[in-house]
Design goal:
The complex is a heterodimer of chains A (about 270) and B (about 200). Chain A is α+β, with helices and mostly antiparallel strands. In chain A, about 35% of the residues lie in helices and about 20% in strands. With about 200 residues, chain B is an all-alpha fold. Helix content of chain B is about 70%, strand content about 0%. In chain B, helix 3 packs across helix 4, helix 3 crosses helix 5 and helix 4 packs across helix 5. Chain B is globular and about 50 Å long. The chains are: A alpha+beta (about 270), B mainly alpha (about 200). Chains A and B meet through helix 2, helix 4, helix 5, helix 8 and strand 1 of A and helix 3, helix 4, helix 5, helix 7 and helix 8 of B.
């Protein structure tokens, strides 16, 4: 942890705590948090601080918002702590059948054990990956030693280029479990980047595969999504001419053609 | 107008405000919500809506969009309520983190779609701290926070306000303030450290 790079990344704790980071930096910093107790503590203290800052931002919402919210929640079932995918869970129009069926196969009793294993697969998005790491050291340590995390500097550079390109286009979808999948495309860079946030693990023996849709409508594989829940990965292939992108669940190793309904599909503008 | 008191309010006077930890109450309401208790959630809404909406509107500016995003925020809180872990932080902090993140996501996707041009140039270039203060409820706590903000150097405060209230990335903040890349994130962090220490929040 004494490389200049990681010394530099400590300095990102403040920006991270106030969401002043881009997706790449967020992914990198969360990776760093997994191994840096100081930063975890610091981020938590900054979050406490921003709650105080929030004191200065009271505003009364319109009356109707209350009714809207209460009407919304009546139609949506809260997630169980133990089970990230609920068959009865319905939300936003963008949601599709999420393929992570392993969770619905699991016993539904919210036992501590299944809760932990669930959480290990799905790092808590909201309150600093930090805290998750404290509770779930094992999973986090594993994530930090995965080869795709250390050998992806080139990928990171391309991803950063795409995301910072003046012509970057962002497409985001929220899945049934509240996780999000975002595709950022830059025609000038010619590449697209997929960013997952809190994505459930693919079922055992399966993987998430990315696709680019050619102007003729056919899908070509754009590579596999690394098995983490918060990943940033560059799609293989020419994104400049593509008219869309998608993500499907495929058998490990991937498929030459999509074999399942996409969990997320993005039409490029 | 802002209703600061709501956070501290106790439903129908059946509990003594003394010794009542508002965060413990919020955590309780969250837990009940996770069981599908809509009544508990409506109490939760009443307790935090001005805080969350205030946060969102501060970042987004546009009331219609803010309403929409706040609605999403509450739906998210409802859905995720079982995932809140009191050991990891306060209930209010958890909810405000969700609200801030959603607001920031919204301004950034709007920016990516080219709809933020005016905002980028005009918005928080010169954050009027005093008008922020005016908008806040006169309360001891708010006063304390305002005082704490005044202990920051103007450079720290400018960077922190653009980032937190403006929803800009540190890279954007650096560009807006003509700072070398990397300087803005340091200022944001230094500002937060000083604010935290002034407010007496431990690291």
């Amino acid at each position: 942890m004494n490389t200049p790079e990681s010394a530099d990344i400590h300095a990102l704790s403040g920006a991270y705590a106030v969401d002043a980071v881009d997706d790449i930096e967020r992914a990198e910093f969360e990776r760093h948090l997994a191994t840096c107790a100081d930063c975890r503590e610091e981020v938590a203290s900054f979050r406490d601080t921003t709650v105080q800052l929030g004191m200065l931002m009271n505003a009364t919402p319109p009356e109707r918002l209350r009714e809207q919210v209460l009407r919304d929640i009546a139609k949506v079932r809260p997630l169980a702590p133990a089970v990230s995918q609920e068959a009865g869970d319905r939300i936003e129009a963008t949601s599709r059948e999420h393929a992570a069926t392993q969770d619905t196969d699991a016993p539904s009793s919210p036992s501590r054990v299944s809760r932990l294993s669930d959480a290990r697969r799905r790092r808590n998005r909201w309150f600093a990956a930090a805290a998750a790491v404290i509770a779930l050291g094992g999973g986090a340590a594993l994530a930090a030693t995965q080869p795709w995390n250390s050998a992806s500097q080139v990928q990171n550079d391309i991803a950063a280029q795409v995301q910072q390109a003046p012509d970057a286009e962002r497409y985001q979808q929220t899945l049934a479990d509240g996780s999000t999948v975002t595709v950022v495309r830059s025609k000038s860079v010619g590449r697209a980047v997929l960013v997952t946030d809190n994505l459930a693990a693919a079922p055992s023996g399966k993987t998430y595969q990315m696709w680019l849709q050619a102007p003729g409508g056919s899908f070509a594989s754009a590579g596999l999504v690394p098995p983490g829940s918060n990943e940033t990965v560059v799609l293989e292939g020419d994104a400049a001419s593509a008219q869309g992108a998608g993500v499907t669940v495929e058998p490990s190793g991937g498929s030459p053609q999509p074999t399942t309904t996409p969990i997320a599909l993005f039409a490029f503008a | 107008m802002p209703v600061m008191a709501e956070l501290r309010a106790v439903p129908s006077g059946d509990e003594s405000p003394e010794g009542l930890d508002p965060n413990a109450r919020l955590a309780d309401l969250l837990r009940q919500s996770s069981w599908g208790d809509e009544g508990a959630f409506s109490q939760l809404y009443d307790a935090v809506a001005p805080r969350l909406y205030g946060m969102v509107v501060r970042v987004l500016r546009d009331p219609a969009q803010s309403e929409e995003v706040t609605q999403e925020v509450f739906l998210e809180i409802w859905r995720q309520s079982a995932r809140f872990d009191p050991d990891r932080g306060s209930a209010l902090g958890w909810m405000m983190t969700i609200a801030h993140r959603k607001a920031v996501d919204r301004v950034r996707s709007a920016a990516a779609a080219g709809r933020r041009d005016h905002g980028y140039h005009e918005a928080n270039q010169d954050v009027d701290y005093d008008s922020t203060a005016e908008a806040a409820q006169a309360s001891l706590e708010a006063e304390r926070v305002r005082k704490a903000l005044q202990t920051l150097t103007p450079a720290q405060r400018g960077a922190l306000e653009l980032a937190f209230f403006g929803g800009y990335t540190h890279t954007e903040v650096a560009a807006m303030l003509d700072l070398p890349l990397g300087t803005a994130k340091t200022r944001i962090r230094d500002g937060l450290i000083r604010l935290r220490d002034t407010l007496g929040l431990s690291s």
